[in-house]
Write a structure and sequence with these properties.
5 strands, 7% strand, 11 helices, alpha/beta
């Protein structure tokens, strides 16, 4: 209508704004199919990557440092590769990749593999270890991306995890909120443990008997045990989100764990997972 166009023109001239009809929101494109590599010999550069799946504040940075001390294992800081995305800016780009047999997820897998492989090559070692806790939420996709991946599941007493998660940022999380947030990671790890083959390690046992536990890990990975793993050396200061940044992890040796909480110190919301993991009868 002419009067509406004139009103909009005046509105733009005097305010810089205009009125537009609210249309139907564009529908989101369907999620791409998540599938194994079409040609593993050419689509994947990594061989048998190792993924350490654990909740937050479960000792994963300690285990990362221990594994990184092995001559065959490169365990860098948390890499968050599942957040690396590929997008098609035009329909022609999408059609071109489809003609090559790639969907968006395939291209993301190629990117993930290339990033990890580059990091591994730069280290001069044989196998890479990724310990990002959030990987537990994407365990199915990681296992699909790398069919030969090996998985190590690291558990810790759920109440100790929650307490440590609160202490990490007490201004951001109350003890109750920390327990609920950490529980999300615990449930994701448990789903992964139920679905994937792998080795389960307990933080309390790793801290109390590091030689025995690291020997078990090496046997699982098909590697010779190396004494240097028990004195993993000085660690660089890490930023939040990339691993533990506190003094304890930078000591260079395995430290004793904190005392386990008693049953009355365990939040009710954590008691089911405590029973599932064998920390509570």
């Amino acid at each position: 209508m002419n009067w509406q166009r004139k009103m909009n023109s005046a509105l733009v001239r005097f305010t810089g704004f205009q009125i537009e009809r609210v249309g139907k929101a564009p529908s989101s494109p369907p999620a791409p199919e998540i599938r194994p590599p079409a040609d593993p010999l050419t689509d994947r550069l990594l061989e048998a990557p190792v993924f350490l799946l654990s909740p937050v504040r479960s000792g994963s940075t300690l285990l990362r440092a221990i594994l990184n001390a092995h001559s065959a294992l490169h365990a860098p800081h948390e890499l968050h590769i599942r957040r690396l995305r590929v997008q098609f800016d035009t329909n022609l780009a999408s059609k071109a990749m489809t003609a090559l047999g790639h969907n968006q997820a395939d291209l993301e897998h190629l990117l993930w593999d290339r990033v990890l492989h580059r990091e591994l090559v730069r280290s001069g070692k044989r196998f890479i270890v990724d310990k990002t806790p959030a990987n537990a939420f994407a365990y199915q996709r990681i296992a699909t991306c790398w069919p030969d991946a090996r998985f190590v599941f690291l558990l810790r007493h759920p109440a100790s995890i929650a307490t440590s998660w609160h202490e990490a940022s007490p201004d951001r999380r109350t003890p109750e909120a920390a327990a609920l947030d950490a529980l999300r990671y615990m449930k994701a790890v448990q789903r992964a443990r139920s679905a994937l083959p792998g080795l389960t390690v307990r933080y309390e046992e790793l801290s109390a008997e590091p030689e025995r536990v690291t020997r078990e890990i090496c046997a699982f990975l098909g590697l010779e045990w190396e004494p240097r793993m028990l004195s993993y050396g000085e660690q660089p200061v890490l930023e939040k989100g990339l691993g533990d940044w506190r003094e304890k992890i930078r000591s260079g040796t395995v430290q004793p764990p904190r005392e386990l909480p008693s049953e009355d110190q365990i939040p009710d919301v954590l008691k089911p997972i405590c029973r599932t993991w064998g920390y509570l009868a």
